[in-house]
Amino acid sequence: MITAELQKGWARSLLEAGKAPSAPWLEALRRKAGDLIDTLPPLNRKQEAWRYTNMEPLLERELQPVVTPPPAYAGEVPEGIAPHRLVFVDGWFVPGLSDTARLPETVTCGGLSDAVADDDERVKNRLGSVADPGAHLFTALNTALVNDGLYLHVPAGVKLEAPIEIFWLNSEGRNRLVQPRNLVILEPGAEATLVEHHLPGAGAHYFHNALYELILDPEARLAHFRVQDESPTAWHLSRLAIEQSGDSRYHGITLAFGARVGRTEYDGRFVAEGARCDLRGLYVVGDGQLQDFHLDVRHAVPGCASREQFKGLLHGKGRAVFDGRILVAKDAQKSDAELTNDNLLLTRDAEVDTKPQLEIYADDVKASHGTTVGQLEPEQIFYLRARGIDRHRAVRLLCEGFAAEIIEHVAVEPLREQALARLRRVLAEIEE
Fold it and tell me: Residue 406: which H helix or E strand, with range?
């Protein structure tokens, strides 16, 4: 069991090892987050958000923060599907492997540390304005050791026609703490599409602890597609803090295939009327894996809408956790919210803990939530076999159909095809 002493000692050793000089304003932000660590409750089963996710094996491991850019990357960089390309290794931006030359000159896209060095006022004013460092240990740790990550700023009215593709890779070595801090700012009327690949690269044993701040000004549009396919021996945590102003649109999809333990947290809030948030996700979990999804979407103002649809496909002794909450505040009249979580268990040893929640304090609201956990229907398999399809292929087709309801919402066709191919490889391995 994780105790307060274990948690503090682990975090304090990382803070000491991760010290790096930076701008005075960033040092103040780091110091404030570091001071929170001693006050945060331990991540054990007494905390509802961590009841089914055992982080003790991670906190018993000695990690080394990556506080400087890694040397030349020796691994293979996958081919891209978009004209704009950013490559990060161990959480650090690598300009030599990236290509942003075709972006408009008014768009800033690159490494956060470069923006800090350039004294970018937008970074000063907005970094740390959305993500709460006191949410839990790992948000505090990310903020206390913030160094590099993605920085994207799209000025008002600029609409990027082509996606920006981002590769998160890892160098060789063991027990690294990789902590990208990602800041995305879309000014009024701006539009962009992000495609992210979280890949092992040359690395295997590491902890990827990412924190996103996604800020959408009025009428901004952001489509955000993420594929988590980390090393099967890695730990991966991503927290996405989203702030949406009036009439903005955020469309986010996470497809989780990899990592020993993977956890994705969406923390969304509406700050003006007319905003809409669409969140979808697919987790495919097998032996020795845990995938954990947590949502907290807060309707604090009237007239906003949210849709949350997540599906899980579990096999072997895979485990999954889904904990989704929609909060509709007293003054958030005319809110429209819908949350669903469906899970398909292919084996008896697979396990899922699911808890969708609605918390409503307003009168005039349209809201619903639901969850299902089940297995493939024998009648469906029989129907396909009666038409000359063998059992293995029948199972694969039914699983593809189940998952396709999420994957088909990926608007970037090459990425959609890649995701389907990845799913088919998993299903083929199950059949063997």
Answer: helix 391-407
